């Protein structure tokens, strides 16, 4: 057993921070275990023994990102919850460091199957965190009973990612609010009912 | 002046086909002008003189992809037009070769500013091609008069790209139809009105 905050935890924190720095600066193509060890001021052997591959390091980083992510809001109103979710995603992607990090892990997932699996787990965890906003709205009678909560939550993020990847347009709060409203409107009309 | 179908055009066709092959096989990180010249059976000097850089080659490939893309449908019904658009995007991304190509150019755009500009022009051209479906629906009184046609068209594609990038779920026709219905419902409710 490791004490929380013990040496093992400190090494992991330093290595994951260094991996983030490398991804932000160089992208996934530039991620290298030796370079991460140097940045983290940790022995190369430790890094190679503990993580073994770039894919495994990225998977651990995504696990940590999921654990560190903010909990969902609980405003009691689906419209407000979805807007808070959209603003959180928009703020994250618009932040220079966080945005570069997310672009780098999306790239990684298109190149590396282990990274893809870890990325899918990360998004699954985030969607699961926010899904109760929708289930509770269903229980309050605000949405059709067979609404798929995952699809509603995904519908909020999708336009923001698409805007980031395919347009030069700024990722601003009106874009976030429009994404939340579109998802809410479609959900109310029954678009996300399970088949 | 080059005759259409003359040597210059044949060289371009061969080089762009080779660039596509390389992107599908190796991704953007593996794109190399010398390798493309070899695959196209064209002299390296020709390729280096005419395209000069990987970013310029990718930009030319995206110009060609935009020119070769299918024209929009004209069914006279916005619901049918948006569904046709969703099915076209879904079929393209679900196709092993085309899907790999699109993932590679999305990756390229996160790494290379010239590629990003070319990618933005590509998506702009595609959105402009389909926007008249929306403008005509506005003229028919099916949508609020100040609806932004670009935002409606983008709303159809966004969930399909997001699903491809963040989930292991299949990109199937029900996903396409749900994307089209969600965009249509939100558009009818006035979500995509210009501020």
From TrEMBL, chains A, B:
The species this protein belongs to is Kitasatospora misakiensis
Q: Which domain of life is it from?
A: Bacteria
User: Which residues does UniProt assign to DNA binding?
Assistant: 32-51
Domain HTH tetR-type as annotated: residue spans: 9-69
Keyword set, alphabetical order: DNA-binding, Transcription, Transcription regulation
Q: Which Pfam families match?
A: TetR_C_11, TetR_N
Quick check: keyword DNA-binding in the entry? yes
SUPFAM superfamilies of this UniProt entry? Homeodomain-like, Tetracyclin repressor-like, C-terminal domain
Instruction: Work out whether the entry's keyword set contains tRNA processing.
Output: no
- List the protein's name: TetR/AcrR family transcriptional regulator
């Amino acid at each position: 057993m490791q004490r929380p905050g013990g040496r093992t935890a400190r090494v992991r924190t330093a290595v994951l921070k260094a991996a983030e720095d490398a991804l932000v600066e160089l992208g996934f193509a530039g991620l290298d275990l030796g370079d991460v060890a140097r940045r983290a001021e940790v022995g190369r052997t430790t890094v190679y023994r503990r993580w073994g591959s770039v894919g495994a390091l990225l998977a651990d980083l995504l696990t940590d990102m999921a654990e560190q992510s903010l909990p969902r809001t609980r405003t009691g109103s689906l419209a407000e919850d979805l807007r808070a979710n959209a603003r959180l995603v928009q703020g994250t992607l618009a932040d220079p460091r966080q945005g570069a990090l997310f672009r780098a892990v999306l790239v990684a997932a298109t190149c590396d199957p282990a990274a893809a699996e870890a990325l899918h787990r990360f998004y699954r965890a985030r969607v699961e965190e926010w899904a109760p906003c929708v289930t509770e709205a269903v229980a309050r009678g605000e949405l059709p009973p067979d609404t798929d909560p995952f699809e509603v939550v995904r519908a909020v993020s999708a336009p923001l990612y698409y805007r980031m990847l395919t347009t030069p347009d700024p990722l601003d709060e009106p874009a976030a609010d429009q994404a939340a409203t579109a998802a809410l409107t479609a959900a109310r009309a029954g678009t996300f009912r399970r088949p």
